Amino acid sequence: MSLFRRSRPPQPVEDPAVAVRVDDLRRDFGSFTAVDGISFAVRRGEVFGFLGPNGSGKTTTIRILTGSLAPSGGQVRVLGTDVARDPDAIHRRIGYMSQRFSLFEDLTVEENMRFYAGVHGLSKETYARRREYVLDMADLRGREGELTADLSVGWRQRLALGTATIHEPELLFLDEPTSGVDPVARRQFWDLLHDLAGRGVTLFVTTHYMDEAANCTRLAFMYRGRIVADGPPRDLVAGGTDVLEVRCADLDGAEDWLDDAADVRDVHLAEGALRVTSPGTDPQALADRLRDAGYGDAVVRAVEPTLEDVFVGLVTGR
Ligand SMILES: Nc1ncnc2c1ncn2[C@@H]1O[C@H](COP(=O)(O)OP(=O)(O)OP(=O)(O)O)[C@@H](O)[C@H]1O
Fold first, then answer.
1. Can you give the residue ranges of the ABC transporter domain (predicted)?
2. What is the CATH number of the domain that holds 129?
3. 109 C-alpha vs ligand 1 centroid, how far in Å?
């Protein structure tokens, strides 16, 4: 054993307003690179949406940020702490809610809350106070003794949020927290998230739902291990290429025809019209081509892109 402590490289002075800072993060699984040199920062108080198709590297990134997986390269600082050096220091200050809710189905509501209070070492007094908060927040008062398995998905989801925040974390990671939940429960859940954000909790959320993405203050979009777009939702939409909307009687036929057109990146049906991603294509020129192809009644106009259009454009353009 050396008598001298090995000197560590000096740590950068962290901006206290930054909750998460990721620099050139990389994670390989064998010869496969799941996270390919990403960099971004999340400011305290933000509702940060981390988006991307299945397999793009979101969960891998969250596992690294929460200290449960080691990175292959790069730096990660969470709440000013180097996660790789001191994972325990951040565990007390962060919360994590996965899409599987991490609840014990054969325990009651009360027992689940008490279990997570124990995991985080809450005192009796703190637990008594937090228990009241969770019961009110999750609308579970009177159901303390019910088996978790008997609760509806929406209630289980709110209980999972309560157990993930029982220790009052400063930063909460939510990995697809609303998958499999009906639209009403999803909206109620987002109300709870906004309430948490209003109390100063930084939220780091992954979701597949674009309406939820629009609730975030900032978004990063992952694709094949890289961040391909980053910014407030409004800026991302404003920076997107216009989408062409096509209306005609035979939408199925027109969709097939457009699918085969070389300059069309994406076409899909939404709300009774076709939305066509085809950067640089003039609406009138497309209407003429559709008419020549036998869709004489086609009306084409340029419309504002939605977030979904922007991301479809990013993915199909690669
Ligand atoms: N332990 C592992 N061993 C090998 N490959 C892995 C491992 N974990 C993840 N991967 C691969 O890394 C890629 C990224 O996975 P990850 O779960 O991070 O994606 P994701 O964006 O979270 O997707 P989803 O939305 O489906 O959860 C996938 O191709 C996945 O198969």
1. 20-249
2. 3.40.50.300
3. 31
